[in-house]
Amino acid sequence: MDAFSYARASDPDNAIQLVQRPGSYFIGGGTNLLDLAKAGVVHPLHIVDLNHIGLAGIDELPGGGLRVGAMARNSDVAAHPLVRERYPLLSQALLAGASPQLRNMATVGGNLLQRTRCPYFTDPGFEHCNKRAPASGCAAREGYSRVHAVLGASEACIAVNPSDMSVALAALDATVVTAGRRANRRIPIGDFHRLPGDTPQRDTALEPGELITAVELPPPRFQKHAIYLKVRDRASYAFALVSVAAALELDGRQVRATSIALGGVAHKPWRVPAAESTLIGAPLDEDRNARVAAAIMAGARPYKDNAFKVVLAQRAIVQALRRAGDMS
Q: Which residues face 254 on adjacent strands?
């Protein structure tokens, strides 16, 4: 790891001021940044510590929504009574991610910003990675592609987003609240993470020096029928090959509203609202669920080692919808 300077921010405004120095990085729990720095993937010159700026509260919003501070720890959010009661999908996704020790350290803001676990990105021994070294190429496209994207990829990058929490937030239509030197913003979660295009080094819509201050959840709709299904190589700490956040609002067996988000298949949590909406107004049905799953995966472009993900994702969607519908 390279040498760097350290500064402890006292409040959000102070943090934004301190991070303006070239080569500066924010740090919360450090569960991703420190690993990348040790491996030589990133080279921070200045570290701005956010652990003393507040922003760890979990508070009700007028109208029934919830505001989760960016510095709230993943374990605290997963266990919070209001999250468990009103947004069980989020609690399930957080508990499916990482180990208890990492959840005790990791923050909501940091989870949103965690980098891909593509091995060609995390190992500088691989020369060709457009995300780590722009314009160098993408070794994954010709290499071992088992864990890589089948949707939304580009010639420049086929990496996937690793966050379980972000998949649940996408299904819940969350909003990311930020503060910056020029303006504060409210970014819909669907616009927060980016597809790689020809600039895969940019993971999110954040501008340099912009600070995530909170995530806001709308009034709950899916308390009773929501499932986070994570398919991985082992039941212990592992990233998703495919994950599904499936949420339903039911009147008996009739679908009144639905939301389906996928993880492990793209550079960002993946939704196809047009496909989801075909469930509305009809009773839950295995054949209809299968057609929706096929429609969600219709644009898939697998590589030589990950074609199994297309079928796996379809089956996972059908199973998640079945399980969500069977909840009482």
A: 251, 283
Residue 40: φ, ψ to 5°: 80, 20
Reported as a single tens digit per residue, the pLDDT across 278-317 is 999 999 999 999 999 999 999 999 999 999 999 999 999 9
Q: Is the dihedral of CA 90, 205, 202, 271 positive or negative?
A: positive
- DSSP for 104-155? HH-BHHHHHHPPP--HHHH-TTS--BTTTSTTS-BHHHHS--TTS-SSS-BT
Question: Reading across the β-sheet that carries 46-49, which strands appear in turn?
Answer: 5-8, 46-49, 24-27
Enter the tokens of residue 96: 């499916």
| Distance between CA atoms of residues 62 and 288, nearest Å | 37
User: What are 30's two structure tokens?
Assistant: 């450090």
pLDDT digits (tens, 9 = 90+) for 183-205: 899 999 999 999 999 999 999 99
In angstroms, the Cα distances linking 251 to 258, 288, 325 are 12, 17, 11
Q: Is 53 helix (H, G, I), strand (E, B) or coil?
A: coil
